[in-house]
Amino acid sequence: MDVLDRAGQRDTVYWNFVYQPLPDADGRISGITVVATDVTEQVLARRRLEHVGQELAANYATLHTAHGASQVANEALSHSNAQLTYANQDLDNFVYAASHDLKLPVLNLAGLFDELRRGVSFTDAAEEALLVPLITQALHQLSTSLDDLAALGRAQQAAHAPAEPMMLEALVEEILHTLEPQVRAANARVSTDFAARPTLTYPRASLHTVLLNLLSNALKYADPTRPARIHCSLWLAAGEPVLWVKDNGVGFDAAGHGPELFQLFRRFHAHVEGTGVGLYLVNRLLLAKGGHLEVDSQVGAGATFRAYLGPA
């Protein structure tokens, strides 16, 4: 019912009425006893609870819908990731197979050209002096590119090999022994610092490929005007092992190349022989383990490569 409070404002209150018969001395009903109880607070509290319940039900419905949409999105993302993984595997398998299938025809072509050189004479000596080196160089570059692509396929397969503990110092010594001719040619001195983690558990073939490419790059792009100085070390960044390879070589404009730094067949110095597969391969191997490759370099100021190896 509506009532007026002391301030003269109309207000709504709720009462609970209990009616009981009122008998007289002879037992006859002579009246009614009415007991009224103010239940306004209980009614308002119940209404508030009902309102809260409705809000909770609406929120639950919204969350349930959002959860369903999230599940659909996660399933779509997982499907896309799986397709991307399969596509990368197919690409790696294709590259590996194609490099092997093309290797034999290239070898045959090189052999036929050698036979042709021995059995046929050019009538123009100047033309012979020009064309023969060009053809020889082209065949060599093609053969080298196929070898690098085959190595890329093998390395991608090796990236899924189980991890094993390795002494970093011993691994670097093994690689430098392989690169001994390049070390001598560059008059290089290689120093190391693996005090932060002398032993590392990692797929051996992957780590060998990463170090081999970074060290051979440092030697390949040594500055001919000064002895090469290369420093290889390992540091921890938020618990993640990071390999550093720093050199005092010719360097390149790293900031100017941006995202194309680690693209396949990307090269920075035309005067140095190479196919542009090495850094692409290193970055792919690191990405497969949750890591990545970074570089700081300026022309004439050497280069510093940081290989983030992924969660330890």
Automatic annotation (TrEMBL):
This is histidine kinase. Gene3D superfamilies: 1.10.287.130, Histidine kinase-like ATPase, C-terminal domain, PAS domain. GO terms for biological process: osmosensory signaling via phosphorelay pathway. Residues 1-51 form the PAC domain. PANTHER family: BACTERIOPHYTOCHROME, TWO-COMPONENT HISTIDINE KINASE. It catalyses: ATP + protein L-histidine = ADP + protein N-phospho-L-histidine. GO terms for molecular function: phosphorelay response regulator activity; phosphorelay sensor kinase activity; protein kinase activator activity. It comes from Hymenobacter roseosalivarius DSM 11622. The keyword Kinase applies. Residues 97-312 form the Histidine kinase domain. InterPro entries: BphY/WalK/GraS-like, HATPase_C_sf, HATPase_dom, His_kinase_dom, HisK_dim/P_sf, PAS-assoc_C, Sig_transdc_His_kin-like_C. SMART domains: HATPase_c (SM00387). Keywords: Kinase, Transferase. It comes from the Bacteria. The keyword Protease does not apply. Its EC number is 2.7.13.3.
